[in-house]
Amino acid sequence: MQDFIIIGHKAVTTGGFSLNDMPGSAGRMDILCRCINSVFFLSHDLRRDVQAHLLLLGEPNPPRVIRFNGEKLRYLNPDERSAGALIKKALEIDDISSIETRSTPGVWIREADLSTLLSEFSSDGRKIFYLREDGEDIRSISEGLKDGVFILGDHLGLTEDEEKLVLGMSAGTISVGPLSLHADHCIILIHNELDRVAFGQIQR
User: Fold this and answer.
1) Distances in whole angstroms, Cα of residue 55 to Cα of each of 74, 119, 189, 197
2) What sign has the CA pseudo-torsion 121, 123, 129, 131?
3) Domain boundaries, the chain
4) Which of 52, 77, 91, 103 could cross-link 82 (Cys pair, CB 3.0–4.6 Å)?
């Protein structure tokens, strides 16, 4: 299982946003929707052995974590509005607490912050990798990528406090290339590296 944590610093935490204005009124929810599509979609199929955790930090009720599980996921189509509709439905649930609540098949929501997510993965013995352009080349890493947890920021990156927290609990920073890329593009490149290893095109 691969897990991706995507942090949306401005992403709203209410279901009242418009699917017609996700870059604006929804706090760049469009970035998170593109990341969801990159995490799960193959040509004519979905990746089943992967999860995405959207950490929403915008107003009015942060923090919220929406978890997408590929094995159980339904009703997701390869467009931003489809992912946005599933996020919107999750945020419309009343009385969100620290206990996960299912909104639609394969999608759950709860109240949780970055520290909680990292602690949960760390306690399970999972290796956590922080994506940054100045990190270690992903192709030079020999262990831990399979079943790894990958952390990506939105258009704002990570704050200084978030970086300090992540670096204190991660296996380090990794890079998929020398240039700064969009988070959804980084996810596709990570998948490509792992696919090539899985199918024997790269030996590690």
Assistant:
1) 21, 14, 21, 29
2) positive
3) 1-204
4) 77
User: According to the model, what pLDDT value does residue 204 have?
Assistant: 57
Q: Give the residue-averaged pLDDT of 30-38.
A: 98
Count Cβ atoms below 10 Å from residue 174 Cβ, excluding itself. Answer: 25
In single-letter form, the type of residue at position 117 comes to: L
| pLDDT digit string, tens, across residues 127-150 | 999 999 999 999 999 788 989 999
How many residues belong to the chain?
204
CATH of segment(s) 1-204: 3.40.1280.10
- Which residue matches tokens 């923090």? 63
Provide the β-strand partners of residue 128.
Answer: 149
Q: What is the pTM of this model?
A: 0.96
**Residue from 200, 188, 186, 197 nearest 154 by CA:** 186
Separation of alpha carbons 119 and 112, rounded Å: 11
**HEC letters along 85-124:** HHHHHHHCCCCCCCCCEEEECCEEEECCCHHHHHHHHHHC
Taking the alpha carbons at both ends of the chain, their separation in whole angstroms is: 18
Q: What Å distances lie between residue 179 and 62, 105, 186, 196, CA to CA? A: 31, 37, 11, 22
| Cα Rg of the chain, angstroms | 16
